[in-house]
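[worker-b] picked up task from shared queue
[worker-b] task type: protein-ligand structure
[worker-b] ligand name resolved to NAP; SMILES cross-checked against name lookup, match
[worker-b] sequence length check passed
[worker-b] input payload:
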Amino acid sequence: MKLDQFELSDKVAIVTGAGHGIGEAIALTFAGAGAHVVCAARTQAEIEDTAEKIRACGRRALAVPCDVMETVQLEKLVTATLQEFGRIDLLVNNAGGGVPMPALETSEKTFERVVRFNLTAPFLLTRLVVPHMVSTAGGGAVVNISSGASRMALGGLAAYGSAKAGLNQLTRITAAEFAPKVRVNCISAGLVDTPGSGSVNKGKIAQQVAARIPLQRIGSVDDIAGCALYLASPAACWVTGKVFEVDGGADVSPISIPLPPL
Ligand SMILES: NC(=O)c1ccc[n+]([C@@H]2O[C@H](COP(=O)([O-])OP(=O)(O)OC[C@H]3O[C@@H](n4cnc5c(N)ncnc54)[C@H](OP(=O)(O)O)[C@@H]3O)[C@@H](O)[C@H]2O)c1
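[worker-b] inference finished, payload out:
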């Protein structure tokens, strides 16, 4: 196999949540592989910073402030991308997350917001982007960022885990609908050291958590970015509708969330 199968030369990628964490790493990795990248998140200074790093490696970048919770802002993100680059080849639905809480204390509004963030927003952006992938580039690839919480029964993550499970299935169904022109795959990430994963990555707790992961460490953002590059690249041209578990081999959750008894 030729290693140029892993290149993304002159492809145009949109990455949500590209201000820091996994999204920033994916944006920089795609740029390193030759892509031009549209960096979307709410904090302008952070996405500008990611865009600057991309330009420093000789690729074009556009920072678009965007709250993925707002449909109008998703529409503006797509419009801005087409105005700047005239095409879209790749979409990474990375922005997502959730705060642990007991199911019985999760309000209707909170549950719906978490589903909106982790499932509805990726659906809406995919629906907006895919027709342009076909009309401007002839096809493309979507990578969704899910979580081990989508398949592990980890108490405290009712809304988040359910939303991510929905994202896994959205991946399979949209892959079936969009084949053969657009591939859709998903990464079910284990615990990764990012601002979003917080205190479990620090000190003694981090050591205890790492000991419960078969590969004996918490993940790095590059562990996820490497898989995203594979899935976005021609190397994965016979892969669609799949959920890749990138988690150090963890089949059970390495963390437990303290919850009050019923
Ligand atoms: N870290 C982990 O251990 C882990 C494990 C499994 C799965 N994941 C998944 O991996 C993805 C990235 O996680 P992460 O830990 O890298 O997250 P993070 O450190 O919290 O970073 C999130 C990024 O998304 C942006 N963002 C947040 N809310 C947004 C919104 N409403 N609209 C647009 N952008 C928004 C943030 O910037 P702004 O706040 O400026 O918008 C930031 O750039 C998420 O889908 C998460 O569920 C993470």
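[worker-b] attaching auto-annotations
[worker-b] The chain has seven helices and seven strands.
[worker-b] releasing lock
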